[in-house]
Amino acid sequence: MLLDAATGPAFIPVRDVASAVLGHARDPSVDAIVWSIRLPVALMALMVGAALGLSGAIMQTILNNPLASSYTLGISAGAGFGAALVIVLGASLPVPESYAIAVNAMLFAGVACAGVYWIGGARTATAEGLVLAGIALLFLFQALCSFLQMIASPESLQQVVFWLFGSLQKSTWPKMWTLCAVLLCCIPLLMRDIWALTALKLGDARASALGVNVAALRVRSFVLISALTGVAVAFVGTIGFVGLVAPHLARMLVGEDQRGFLPTSALMGSVLLSLASVASKTVSPGAIIPIGIVTSLIGVPFFVWMVLRHRRAYR
Amino acid sequence: MTVSLTQVAVAYGSRAVLQHIDLQARAGQVVGIVGPNGSGKSTLVKAIAGHVPSTGAITFHGESVRPTQLGYMPQESLTPMVLTVLEVVLLGRLAQLGLQVRDDDLQAVAQTLEHLGIADLAGQRMGELSGGQRQLAYLAQALVSQPKYLLLDEPTSALDISHQLEVLDLVRRLTKERGLITLVVLHDLNAAARYCDEVALMHQGRLLLCEPPAVALTVEHVSRVFDVEAEALTCSDGVGVLVASHRKVNSREWGNPNSI
Lengths: 315, 260
Known about the structure:
The complex is a heterodimer of chains A (315) and B (260). Chain A is mainly alpha-helical.
């Protein structure tokens, strides 16, 4: 986090950043830069990473599918479509203009989540049905988003494309605290179901035999995924691969007991996004590469390597 | 201690899957449930476990059963085997597990694994085990909460003969030692004859009879229920076995479940 706050258009030594964070900054301008610009970005990277890592982990658990994440199953695409609606058509809920994109993105992440659950079979809600529904919605929202881009003015198109790339640079303290509050609300709810989620790793039939109401557990989990993904994506745009890769790293480190798996996935998400944030600011001096591009560039080869190396784990 | 089923029926929509099931089992008894595919064996076990809605009365010694009193082992399913044996067995105490696993939970798991002779497998992933070891781990899961009633759905499916004997030996021994009531779905009629005190013969969603193996598994009954040519042979060491071959003629007339 300190390294993330230290990097930017002008590098600030990590020691100076630490001093500023602890309230002992010698240079007031460093203090101002750290507290008003760098720290919100660095903390937002931690929070968004945690939210995406956690939502990806829950999704992989409830669907018993290592390729599931908010990104691969259309929830981020839904949020992207919601954001594009505001940018291109100005269609949004009656909220302050500065929050319109975020609120609409969050709303459509919820719509996508509800859609996955509804199409996937609300009555039986089997893992296979939900995965297929997620893939269908991913294509649907991508097509709708492409359509909006096609009819957008050049300025709107640029704005949509930049939003879809994902960026931490518009992070503010209120946004960071909002995300922090959502995480703090979701964690106790997850803790309550932690063993039931572990039981799902044995398959629906065995989890039911152990007394787990599988369909109800999936509904509760989808609500949490919707909240975590919605609020994370709403503030920073679509960021791929963190939600997919972080749970795999966690699985390699602590296994599938959800008591260790879920917190470690959140931690891995934070670490990955912070590193990606540092990379986005240092790869091309003087310019900040959108973080969504960096996570994908790092994430894809890393993910392929993991799949090939740990193929046996997916038996 | 008894399990008593009176006029139990299960329907999926308008399709009746189980009808008019009356069954009684006593403590220390292993009751084998046998019958052709689709005869309602698994549904009967699920109904007793409370996993499918049923009509009629299912009572456990005249009272309703608590989840911890019931050890239920469903059929082997194809799922990623990523959990360790310790985690799988611990899940058998799901209802009482907190975020921090208590010592008594770990102790119960250790004792159960010890009792089943698989303590050395505790840290291994399920995917690394043989079929027999996996079945023993799931059996440990069903037993870890010290249930009074044991419901096992094809616990020996996909096992070789040695592992079948190992699992069924254990089930019978535990049932006798702990005074359990065990209902076990089996496909192997000879195993049912050897390990069960009574055999419930199912056909087309009905329970035809529930009697000791010598009465239930006669050549005539087996031929009619399974629609095969059954034959009782005696091996050189004097042990009797049932063998079957396909019928030479279409024998749909035997299909009426009330004809026995």
